[in-house]
Design goal:
This protein folds into 2 domains: about 70 residues, no CATH class; about 80 residues, no CATH class. About 45% of the residues lie in helices and about 15% in strands. The protein has 5 helices and 6 strands, in the order E-E-E-E-H-H-H-H-H-E-E. The longest helix is centred in the middle third of the chain and has 33 residues. The chain is elongated, with a radius of gyration of 32 Å.
Length: about 190
């Protein structure tokens, strides 16, 4: 049996020895198997098989690290909500919060408040100093090196393309591409 030549139209690949059925899905005339139909236009691509959808594909160390980081993030998130939770608890009459947070000595509030202010000012000062340092060191200088654009001849020789393929691919919105059994591009023609 010869290997079929594939014609690719958008997301559908139809072998030359197949005929399209009424729904638009290709039908293998030799085996009478129906290929799955194309998704409707505007449907996002399938995410099946991606690591984000299949965490079992990750190495065990990465899965453990991911779970630890997630747990830490939830603890920090909960900690950030503590002032609101405390306020609501106080509003609804939970006396324990009142005894431990509102009634302590005034010197406790002064000490805690001053520590918070010192920490906030230290962090803000560090951020300002770091941004000034980066501005002085890198400001106005673009040190990135951009690669030279590839020429048409380089693209054609690398992918072993026919002479007219690049023009057709660039000039049409919809293109029919034919490949041989090794996956080498044979022809590209625009569809109207």
């Amino acid at each position: 049996m010869r290997s079929p030549e594939i014609t690719s139209t958008g997301a559908t690949a139809v072998a030359k020895d197949q005929e399209p059925c009424a729904e638009g899905a290709p039908v293998d005339t030799e085996n009478q198997e129906i290929a799955p139909p194309d998704p409707p236009p505007g449907t996002p691509p399938s995410r099946e098989g991606l690591i984000i959808e299949r965490p079992d594909l990750q190495p065990p160390g990465q899965r453990v690290a991911y779970r630890v980081v997630t747990a830490i993030a939830w603890v920090v998130w909960g900690y950030l909500w503590l002032p609101l939770i405390t306020l609501l608890a106080w509003f609804f009459g939970v006396r324990r919060f009142v005894r431990e947070i509102v009634v302590p000595e005034k010197s406790f509030f002064l000490a805690t408040g001053s520590v918070y202010i010192i920490v906030i000012l230290t962090l803000a000062g560090t951020l300002v100093l770091w941004s000034r340092y980066n501005l002085a060191r890198f400001g106005g200088r673009d040190r990135r090196r951009h690669p030279e654009p590839l020429t048409r001849d380089e693209i054609e020789s690398h992918f072993n393309l026919p002479d007219t393929a690049i023009d057709v691919l660039r000039s049409h919105r919809s293109t029919v591409v034919e490949y041989d059994s090794e996956g080498q591009l044979l022809e590209a023609r625009g569809r109207s």
